[in-house]
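Sample pair:
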Amino acid sequence: MFKRFLAVLLSVLFCLLSCSSGASAYAASDGQSDGLFAFTENLLKMVRTYDQGNSYISDEYVETAPDGTAEADRLQSALPITFRMLGSEVGVFSDGITSVRLQNQSAVLQVQNAAGTYTVTAKSEARMENNTCIVPAAEVLEAFGYTVSEAKKDGVLLNRAFQSKRLIVKSASAIDLQGASECVSGYRDLYILQYDTETAAKNAYAYYADCPAVDYVEPDYIRIMQDETADSQTETEIGAEELLYTVRDAAQSWVSEQIGFEAIKLRLAEMQLPEIVVAVLDSGVDTDHELLEGRLLENRFNLSSTGEENSCEDDYGHGTHVTGILADNTLGNVKIKPYKVLNNQGKGPSSLIALAVDCAVADGADIINMSLSGPGESQTMTDSVNAAVEKGVNVVVAAGNDKADLSKTYYSPACVESAFTVSAVTQTNALASYSNRNGPIDIAAPGDNVKSSYLNNTYMVMSGTSMAAPLVSAGLAVVRSAYPNKTAEEAQEMLSKYAIKVLENDGANYFGNGILYLKYILDKQPKTANPVFSVSGGEFNASFSLTLSCPEKDTIILYMLNSESDFPDIGFINGKQYKGPLPISTDTKVSAVAISKGKLPSAVVTQKYVRSNRNEEDDYDIDSNGKITAYIGNKT
């Protein structure tokens, strides 16, 4: 008994000594602002010490053949892996101290690293074809420390879960640090443990995962901004007039008209509006940009591994672009407070991002925007987002840009249930090709070719769910400005109610509750009933006539055929007015909307009809002599 007591005591002392960089300097203060800010400051020191100069690997989608293989040089071009051929029989990959040796026509990969040599059995045969090394992609990549988050028929989604060499452990009891080189603790029962190698972090993870006293353990994932593309930076003479409660003549981007903000901004400007604070957790902001004049609240918290300490000045550009979208689609009563959590590569650790959420809540934010995401569940992030929502804060997050099915692959914070998750659509209101989809998507917004502010008082056109998220944050700010008595939850419900519904017969959840639209948000009009299709979508064998109708009187129906998306713009100006049955004889997509005077448009209802390849003779049982013996079809 005494030995057991002594062991526990030594463990406690060891933990306290090892965590001196955090716990000894500041008293634990779970849930209190002083404990939060002290903990955050100490963690930031750790991150800046260990992360500066690291080129973290971004989440990547690597294309593969249907059998799961990939050409070695394709892997080399997609990822920081070097490759060379030794004769015609052997391919060698190398990445630092790790190498993979692949014998021709062998289903075994031999992996060598600092821990020794081991073998990985491949699911598919590795081979040589035309002097090209063909390898089982997932096995090779896992040998390099990548985590295959989602495998599809045409590719694999990858991330390096342990690349920060850091763990987040939650435990109400003192813990054995498992050889951590540094530890920060003293807030919310969290221990942030830094290790010298990925292998050491993985081994410690396995230990804590089996420890009964530990509530949870997770890698300190590296999250990344969610912009997909960026056009070259251009100087422009288009400037912002003074932003108080006045309205600029022209928005920077087409999206302002698309979401209906242009239609209501003059009416908003005539109203007495309360101050709404939006916290933007990103790469910082260009504080001298003309578009942001009078819109920024000072914040000297730099929680990233780059840039000047105690400065939110943007050293990447993404945060300035996101902030500009918010400013361009709200009035001057909406103030924006930047929190620099991403470095000059657009990346940052989940631990500090979660703490920034806590800091924003403590600072009194009404809305939090996070245009960042990545594969891997983080309970730390979930706890922070849930706590923010419980305190009446809207937390808006980008869905991500990996084409991932969020019902199968967990992204954080996109998959946190209490967050308001945004997918991206194009100018024609089709789902953007890069946008994550399904699962927790709550709403969609334009994300393609969005012009906004950029570094050095310039402007940039960028695309991604990163651009869609601040439009939704702007929409919530408009609702909470116009209806100050509404709670955060009620504001989200209202935004969802007035979004343009997109109903597809394939049941895909690309748009959540619809596509963001603010035009009617001030009028609170009822919606027109949805159009009714005489034939439901699906396969068909024979040509037929499709009838469209609406249960309400005095309505008109606009429709589009063979559209790759649902209506080029929310005004439906390119839709044809329905006047009679539509002949359907080939694969056809039909989108329709009902419009009634004095009411909001109905949902956009889409049905897809696919002509079956089934032959007429398939409806009959024919014997070996070619004689019809029975009718087996379903026609009446």
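The first strand starts at residue 60 and ends at 63.
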